[in-house]
Amino acid sequence: MLKIDCHAHILPERWPSLQERYGYGGFIELDHQVPGKARMMRDDGTFFREIEQNTWDPISILADMDAHDVDTMVLCTVPVLFSYWAEPADALDWSRFLNDHLAEVVRNHPQRFIGLGTVPMQDVELAIQEMKRCKEELGMPGIEIGTNVNGRNLDDPLLFPFWKAAQDMGMAVFVHPWEMMGAERTQSYFLQWLVGMPAETTLAIASMLFGGVSDAFPKLRVMFAHAGGTFPFTVGRISHGYYARPDLCNVNNVSDPTKYVGQFWVDSITHNADALRFLLALLGPDRIAYGTDYPFPLGDLEHGKFIEDMVDLSPAVKQQLFSTTVLDFLGLNAEAFLRPSPKELPDQDTVFE
User: Fold this and answer.
1) Which of 43, 64, 247, 306 sits at 20 to 30 Å (Cα–Cα) from 15?
2) Domain for residue 39, yes or no?
3) Could you tell me the CATH number of the domain that includes residue 309?
4) 288 φ, ψ (degrees, to nearest 5)
5) pLDDT, tens digit, for every residue of 136-148?
6) What is this structure's pTM?
7) Domain presence at residue 1
8) Alpha-carbon gap, residue 250 to 328, rounded angstroms
9) What rounded mean pLDDT belongs to the chain?
10) pLDDT for position 342
């Protein structure tokens, strides 16, 4: 069974000081304080997160993949590196650096990795320019963006040219939460990640639906991280509000939000079999793709074991979740990622006879 992780992250092992490069601060730097580990630090010295070698080293990532029978990973950058707040020209330069690194990783392991680029969303023209480069020069099938752009929700009219360009180019868009709403009230107990992230993703989905993005761009392919946040489990309330207060909800003359269910994709990161069963009933397996958020602690670091253990799912449904859905989302063919089984490999003693 082909197994493709639709949601995993990588960053370069090193990069030059961005404060020196651009002349101002706020960027993330890596402090490789001990072998195999590094601290992600803001350039003012503020600690952000500790990471390990499997965040930057493809060989370490491949070892983890092999240990869990993962054929291919879809890699994208870590959202804190988006830097949407930076000067647009600098953000473009930084995006190009990240995308060139990711493209090199994919070139070195084309059967094992797929890359999603990053673009400077604070300037739509530059974002479109880099998205085009990702497609035409780097061969990427899609990009990753954040759930908001400096506080602008994804239905902001300024972003409509970007959505049109993504649709016209046939580029898939993976939406990942960042700069979570309610951050000032979720500093304790890791709540920014436990509560803020799902809420932020729900805000992104609801904004796009109520804002008419789905109506304006019906062929746009968008996937939302972390099983769509809380949206699948609050869509009934959102739909009820659409009818109860149309004066507030339906200002853009859109359809009942439930009508759009099935027009977007989500990953499978529910960490719970019953939650995934509900998601399957709501969206269908053709809109859910196995993902892990590798290599971070909140990810599914058992690499889909809970899906494999669900005896009520047929092999066909599992295959849909594990590879077919993400390939459809990205517009790719399975043949490029099928690897020969050990039985199909030539005998090492006779291969040169």
Assistant:
1) 64
2) no
3) 3.20.20.140
4) -125, 130
5) 999 999 999 999 9
6) 0.94
7) no
8) 31
9) 94
10) 53
